[in-house]
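Worked problem 6 (solution included).
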Amino acid sequence: MKNRSDKVLGSVLEAIGGTPVVSLSRIANNVAGTILAKLEYLNPGFSKKDRPALQIIEDAEAEGLVRPGQPVVELTSGNMGTGLAIACSIKGYRFIAVMSKGNSPERARMMAALGAEVVLVDQLPDSFPGKVSGGDLELVEQETRRIAREKKAFRADQFKLWGNFRSHYLHTGPEFLEQSDHKIEVFCDFVGSGGSFAGCAAAFKEANPSIQCYVVEPDGAAALAGEEVKRPQHRIQGGGYSMPSLIFLKAEYIDGYLKVTDEEAMAAARRLAREEGIFAGFSSGANLAAALKLLRGPCAGKTVAILINDSGLKYLSTDLWPS
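Solution. The predicted structure is:
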């Protein structure tokens, strides 16, 4: 595992990864078991998506898929776009981020500050700010394809390019195993593109096939578990978009599925801040809520690993953090 503090770095890209792991002993003091949280929000772009952003660009360069001066474009809920904005700014590519207006505005501002051109796409007439549905995401996808075609841009497609999976299989998962002294017994992760769940699960099961890995989804939008989507406009940004055909998710990685309500995710995120001093967003709260369900149920007494996906600073305009 690399140590980011032992030398002068050549660029901020070298600060991606090597994130610390914290035992959530205060939150877990009334349940049987241990929760280990890997603080991915301490990456330079304040999210786990810095890893796949850099990996996708580096893979594309190695394979000759992106040329000097060629634009890069991708759809994003904000985190992948921030990671790509950082990678492209250092490597000299123009980056175009395409995002739904339903996502929190802090993300668009951050991407723009990092040099990205941000294209905001209107939501469907029956959608609400802060609640991005699968239909909203499809509008963003259509606009991304149009821009890629017209500008002959490289599409840094987080849903299809294996750099997303590889970043977590090669780095996040092995780091977590080493930091935990290989004591991880269970892993649960809120699924968006599927890269962090699948990459970590593959690394974990390769090291120890008995590690149980659970997909976390929003209650009412558990499409991956095969349920009918009844609440497409849930609050947990970055996932639950009714996309059951994610290419990274293989059956051998998945031991079960968990559902988390908006209220459970928000309450858990607030507990992270109050009790552990970890200021995170909706999906990190979903991961914690799922871990607590496991320790109160089938995985009592075990060590559960979760990711802290992004920073709570990206949600200050939402009611996750009431004034």
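Discussion: The chain has two domains: 12-47+162-315, 50-155.
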